[in-house]
Amino acid sequence: MAYDHVIITVDDSSTMRRIIKNTLTKLGFTNVLEAGNGVEGLDVLAKNEVDLIITDWNMPEMDGLTFVKTLRAKDEYKETPILMVTTEAAKEDILTALRSGVNNYVVKPFTPDTLQEKVNKLLGL
Ligand SMILES: [Mg+2]
């Protein structure tokens, strides 16, 4: 199965970006963009239309929460699905992320099945 959805993974760890990208590729999502933090993410998004944003929380320059709040404040990203993938697993952290505008949440380390389930759900597949 191949999909034409465009997904961006925003994470300061190039290893994590590679893991997410490889997992998505195996699931049939071959259009995956990358950014190393929120500032870079905004830059990539200004030049590309994406169907799903996958973002880390802890990043230099602009962290994931600020990134999500910045996106949600813009009309064009009010509805774009956002999945947060992070090591912050405390219940209050998850609530904070959801309140900031994140649609769903994956705690690292995750299995390919977990990522697939959340991605499919957010893309309506
Ligand atoms: Mg990080």
From TrEMBL:
Stored Gene3D superfamilies: 3.40.50.2300
Keywords on record: Phosphoprotein
Classification via InterPro entries: Bact_response_regulator (IPR050595), CheY-like_superfamily (IPR011006), Sig_transdc_resp-reg_receiver (IPR001789)
Signal peptide per UniProt: none
GO biological process, one term: phosphorelay signal transduction system
Domain Response regulatory as annotated: residue spans: 6-123
UniProt modified residues of type 4-aspartylphosphate: D56
Pfam families the UniProt entry points to: Response_reg
UniProt cross-references to SUPFAM superfamilies, sorted A to Z: CheY-like
Listed PROSITE patterns: RESPONSE_REGULATORY
UniProt protein name: Two-component system chemotaxis response regulator CheY
